[in-house]
């Protein structure tokens, strides 16, 4: 029984590292929302790499967000009898109106082979669209 309690305690403490930090009210917070079974990661703000790829938290004003988006192109979208193709893409988004204390949403998806990402404000208004910076092996970039 004692071993079970120790294991339970250790596993619960490990889960604490998965919690999101509390947003800083002096900064803008950007939630990442990939569509369906895809992966969207925060890479950098204004060229500075981030320690945590689960969200962006930025100073107010004009910022450039860099992100990585991984998705799969279904075989039916490629050609008859084709296997699905994994895409690994880098995108960049520029927006000049981030406001302290606001919570934004960065939604990402793909059309065929092309990735896309859109930034929305707290009232769900479209603010900016990302541009694709390349797809392929991004581990070396």
Automatic annotation (TrEMBL):
This is Putative lipoprotein. Keywords: Lipoprotein. It comes from Pseudomonas saudiphocaensis.
């Amino acid at each position: 029984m004692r071993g079970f309690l120790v294991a339970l305690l250790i596993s619960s403490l490990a889960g604490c590292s998965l919690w999101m930090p509390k947003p800083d009210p002096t900064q803008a917070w950007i939630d990442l929302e990939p569509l369906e079974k895809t992966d969207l990661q925060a890479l950098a703000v204004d060229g500075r790499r981030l320690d945590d790829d689960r969200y962006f938290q930025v100073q107010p004003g004009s910022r450039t967000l860099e992100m990585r988006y991984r998705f799969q192109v279904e075989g039916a979208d490629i050609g008859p009898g084709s296997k699905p193709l994994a895409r690994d893409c880098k995108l960049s988004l520029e927006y000049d109106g981030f406001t302290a204390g606001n919570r934004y949403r960065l939604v990402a998806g793909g059309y065929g082979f092309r990735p896309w990402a859109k930034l929305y404000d707290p009232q769900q208004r479209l603010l900016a669209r990302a541009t694709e910076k390349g797809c392929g092996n991004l581990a070396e970039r």
